[in-house]
Amino acid sequence: MTAPLHEPTAEAAPSAATEAAVAAGDAKAVQGRSLGRIAWERLKRDKLALTGGIVVLVLVVLALLAPVITGLLGQDPNEYHENLIDPLFGTPTGSLGGISGDHLLGVEPVNGRDIFARILYGARISLLVGFLSAVVAVILGTVLGILAGFFGGWVDSLISRVMDGLLAFPQLLFIIALVSVMPNDMLGLSGSSVRVFVMILVIGFFGWPYIGRVVRGQTLSLREREYVEAARSLGAGRLYILFKELLPNLVAPIVVYTTMMIPTNILTEAALSFLGVGVKPPTASWGQMLSSAIDYYESDPMYMVVPGVAIFITVLAFNLFGDGVRDALDPKASR
Questions:
Q1: Cα 237 from chain centroid (whole Å)
Q2: In sequence order, what are the beta bridge partners of 145?
Q3: Distances (CA, A) of 171 to 93, 178, 257
Q4: Which of 147, 247, 268 is nearest to 205 (CA)?
Q5: Residues 288, 274: contact at Cβ < 8 Å?
Q6: Contacts of residue 67, Cβ cutoff 8 Å, sequence gap at least 6
């Protein structure tokens, strides 16, 4: 009997093991990633957006811990320090508006209240109004926008005309008129709490048409997609299609627009307080501090610079973070 022409060699077994290892490595290499993970990896590469997000997080923490921080520093936002004020000119003694180890950002003219403590408490008002009014606008805009885009017809026409009317309405003038005639006590709230509540509702109510238009336009496009048609053909009801098929695909534009809406709401609150129809004294507010600083911008410029810089940094941080979130969630973005 003759030997086989091709006998197995010793290298055959190692070759099979090598191929198995390579296959396992390839399987790990092509491991799938969720949309959230892809967006997070894109966001991590954007250093400006991360910086803005960190600043926003720090501002939120400082605002939440304002009573603790001011207590550790031994400062009260409403405590007067008239001994630190020049009795002749009414301005803080010392340089740079009275900055010292006890008063990190100086003191206010005339009464000597600690500016750092009032900046922290002012951040609570600005962020509270900015966030909650954005929540009100997002809820109304998402619900009405998705209904208008999905149902179309007279529903779309009615909601669109309401949006057009609100967009043309003088929001700032209406808020000024409404807040000016509000009672001091309402729904168990009193003083500045009433005005904060009214500002949140009114700013949110007049802000929903902007996000409503975005959601409506996206819904008009999504309702014609194949997966929606497939759900209809399988007998899915309207509520199922709205909440299971359309709403998850609207999360990205809603999140992006929310991050862009918050700084606008913060500026609106600051403008209202600057005009004297925001929170009532002695409650601290950045806009109110800017309004009071007008009379002292020559003799004590730091009193105007500090709240102005606080508003600038807050709005800039939100805008940078919002731009980064938009780029991270947009698959067509260049970054």
A1: 34
A2: none
A3: 42, 10, 19
A4: 268
A5: yes
A6: none
Under 8 Å between Cβ of 69 and 62: yes
Residue 133 and residue 126: Cα distance in Å, rounded?
A: 11
> Could you give the 3-state DSSP secondary structure of residue 237?
coil
For 106, the 3-state DSSP assignment is coil
Please write down the HEC assignment for all residues of 258-269.
Answer: HHHHHHHHHHHH
CA dist 110 and 108 (Å) reads 7
Structure tokens at 204: 């949110």
Structure tokens at 244: 């299971």
* Closest C-alpha among 320, 314, 322 to residue 58: 314
Q: Are 238 and 150 in contact (CB under 8 A)?
A: yes
The owner of tokens 């008239």 is: 82
C-alpha triplet 61, 66, 72: angle, nearest 5° = 115
CA pair distance 248, 254, nearest whole angstrom: 10
- pLDDT (mean) for 172-200: 79
CB contact at 8 A, 273 and 311:
no
Count Cβ atoms within 10 A of the Cβ of residue 314 and give its class: 0-12 exposed, 13-18 middle, 19 or more buried: buried
Query: How many other CB atoms are found less than 10 A from the CB of residue 88?
Result: 6
pLDDT by residue (tens digit) across 233-278?
887 777 888 888 888 888 888 888 888 899 999 999 999 888 888 8
Q: pTM to 2 decimals?
A: 0.82
